Amino acid sequence: MLWLRDRPLDLSQVRIMGILNLTPDSFSDGGLYLDPEKALNRAREMVAEGADILDLGAESTRPGAEGVPVEEEKRRLLPVLEAVLSLGVPVSVDTRKAEVAEEALRLGAHLLNDVTGLRDERMRALAARFGVPAVVMHMPVPDPKRMMAHAQYKDVVAEVKGFLKTQAEEALNVGVPQVVLDPGFGFGKLLEHNLALLRRLEEIACLGHPLLVGLSRKRTIGELTGVEVPKDRVFGTVAAHLYAVQKGARLLRVHDVRAHKEALRVWEALGA
Ligand code: HH2
Asked: What is the pTM of this model?
């Protein structure tokens, strides 16, 4: 069970985290939901399609992305967050800045999704203070601009696993109630690294924390399918995510909620 403040999320069923990017420059949906009205409509649509939780982000973390100033990130995120919280679905906030996280948690966000792996002790302290779980994701350096220069590993699975284990322990030690682990597909990782992590995902699942994966429309899917346009990578994404479920993933971070809900319905009906 994952406790999102007072809401239990039963992970005996695979759960869908719908992505809402309030950015001009995200790699697959940049600019589509900058207008708060459009963002809220998209949130409603994902809820209607069966999203179990929505992940709101206001800064792109695609390879090479420039950081966004704190005030700008708050301006994009907070009004939409407030509106989305009124829809009654749990909301995760995707930010690497403690100043942004604090305000989002004060508004009532249910989960902290920090792609830098809670390296900043203020992030750990915030999740503990507000009593919310946190996603611990791996990236080799906490900076999307430089991360691809660090896509070098002897054994990527062992390194990612070691990082996640250490960061999870640090978080739990300071009172973060629960952590969700995420290998960070595409974050400072090449195709070969992403494939190794997928093939050996059970080695990370066995750390004993719920596992989240996010391959939605990512370059890896484009490289495997030859599909250039990110929004057209849905079929490949679903295949990769079902494979990840078979290897222990319990939460899928996706742009295409309906496609995943339908695929999972079939998958689960087969007792897979
Ligand atoms: N991927 C992205 C952003 N946040 N969070 C977690 N926990 N795991 C991920 O794999 C992950 C994430 C990047 O995808 P997206 O939000 O679609 O793009 P952008 O960073 O360009 O906004």
From this structure: 0.98
Question: What distance in angstroms lies between residue 102's CA and the mean position of ligand 1's atoms?
Answer: 20
Encode the chain (272 residues) as per-residue pLDDT tens digits. Answer: 999 999 999 999 999 999 999 999 999 999 999 999 999 999 999 999 999 999 999 999 999 898 999 999 999 999 999 999 999 999 999 999 999 999 999 999 999 999 999 999 999 999 999 999 999 999 999 999 999 999 999 999 999 999 999 999 999 999 999 999 999 999 999 999 999 999 999 999 999 999 999 999 999 999 999 999 999 999 999 999 999 999 999 999 999 999 999 999 999 999 86
Tokens found for residue 75:
């301006």
- Cα(45) to centroid of ligand 1, in Å? 20
Which of 253, 255, 257 maximizes ligand 1 atoms within 8 Å of its Cβ, making it the mutation to test the pocket? 253
State which residues form the domain around 151.
2-269
Closest alpha carbon to 144 in 181, 182, 116, 114: 116
CATH code of residue 7: 3.20.20.20
- Residues involved in catalysis: 218, 253
C-alpha closest to that of 22 among 12, 11, 31: 31
Structural domains in the chain (count): 1
What residue has token string 């039963």? 10
